[in-house]
Amino acid sequence: MAVFNHVSFDEHEQVVFCHDKESGLKAIIAVHNTNLGPAVGGCRMWNYQSDDEALTDVLRLSRGMTYKNALAGLTMGGGKSVIIADPKTQDREALFRAFGRFINTLGGKYYSAEDVGTTTADIMIAHQETPYMAGLEGKSGDPSPFTALGTYLGIKAAVKHQRGLDTLKGLKISVQGVGHVGYYLCKHLHEEGAELIVTDIHQPSLDRVATEFGATVVAPQDIYSQDVDVYAPCALGATINDATLPLLKAKIVAGCANNQLAEPRHGQLLKDMGILYAPDYVINAGGIINVSFENNYDAAKSTAKVEKIYDTLLTIFTAADAQNRTTGEIADEMARAIIDAAAK
Ligand code: NAD
C-alpha cells in the first residue's frame, strides 16, 4: 500500500494511522492542508474491504475538504478521518473514546465531526477525550439541514443557468439516498413543487419520503435511467462512472454526495454529454459552513452564508461556459487561488 506515492496523496501534510488494542479501533486521520486554518472535516465509519480502500477514501475526502472550505470562504483547512468498522457497531463508547484520544494527540491541527456512519452522539463521546470536535450537541448540531439547503439552492442555480428558470415547479428530480441530507432536500424540493423520484437501500427512509412528499420509489439500480431534469446523488461517492454515464437522461447532476465523479475524466464526459455538473464540494458545503459558526452559534448568519452557494455556483457555471472547460476545473482553480494566497 503506497502512501506518499498514492494516486490521491496530493501533498497531504500528515496522515496518521491509529490502532487501539483495547477497543479494537482502526482509524486513519488525514490532514491535507492547513494554509487557511486548522483542518476540519468529518469522521466516516465504514466497513471498508481493505486498508487501501480506507486510505483512498480518506485522502480523497480530506483533499475535498480543503477545496470545499476554501471556496466556502471559511478560515479552515481540510482534513478527514475514517474508522474501519461496521457503522452499525453497537458498542461505541470505547471506540469513540479511543478515537477522541488520537484526535487529541494532533493538538488542534485537525477537528473532527459527524459524517456517514457516525452520529452526533458519537462525536459527543469523542469530545469527552478532546476539545477538537465540531458539530456538538447544543452548539451547531446536526449539519444535514444546512447541507440540504445549500444543495437545494445549488439545484436552483443549475436550473437557472441551464434553463433560465427561477422555479423548480413541475420539474422531475431523482434523489439517490434519502438519509439525513436527502430527506431535508426532498422536503425543500417538494415544497417548491418538484416531482420526486427516489431510491435508497433503507426501506423506512423511503416510506417516509413517499408518505410525506408523494415521492415515487424506484429500485437502486433504476435511478440512473429515470427520465428526469435533475439527478441528485445523495448517497455515497463515485456514482458517476463508466457504467452509469450512458444511462443518464438528466441534463443536470447536482447532489450532496462527496466525490461523485469516479475519476476526474468523468467531469469531461459529463460536459461532452451536455450535462451540467455542480461540483460536489461546492454544492454540499452547507453543513461545514454551519459548523464554522460553532462558537457563538447564530443560525441566521449561518443560513445567509449557506445561501451564497447559489451565487458561487452561478459564477462557476458562467466561467466554465466562457472558457469551454469543465465546472470542476473552474472550481478547483478558484479554490487553489484562495489556498495559495493564504500560504503567502
Ligand atoms: P446518510 O447515511 O444519512 O444517508 C445516505 C443514504 O444513502 C442512506 O439512507 C443509505 O441507506 C443510502 N444509500 C447507501 N447506499 C445506497 C445505494 N447504493 N443506493 C441508494 N441509497 C443508498 O448520509 P448523509 O449525511 O445524508 O450524507 C449523504 C451524502 O452527502 C454522503 O456522501 C456524505 O458524505 C455527503 N455529505 C453529507 C453532509 C452532511 O451534512 N450530512 C455534508 C456534506 C456531504
From TrEMBL:
Record keywords: NAD, Oxidoreductase
SUPFAM superfamilies: Aminoacid dehydrogenase-like, N-terminal domain (SSF53223), NAD(P)-binding Rossmann-fold domains (SSF51735)
GO molecular function: L-leucine dehydrogenase activity
Domain Glutamate/phenylalanine/leucine/valine/L-tryptophan dehydrogenase C-terminal: 141-344
Family per similarity comment: Belongs to the Glu/Leu/Phe/Val dehydrogenases family.
Superkingdom of origin: Bacteria
SMART domains found in the cross-reference section: ELFV_dehydrog (SM00839)
InterPro entries associated with the record: Aminoacid_DH-like_N_sf, Glu/Leu/Phe/Val/Trp_DH_C, Glu/Leu/Phe/Val/Trp_DH_dimer, Glu/Leu/Phe/Val_DH_AS, Glu/Phe/Leu/Val/Trp_DH_bac/arc, NAD(P)-bd_dom_sf
Record has NAD as a keyword: yes
Signal peptide region: none
Enzyme Commission no: 1.4.1.9
Descriptive protein name: Leucine dehydrogenase
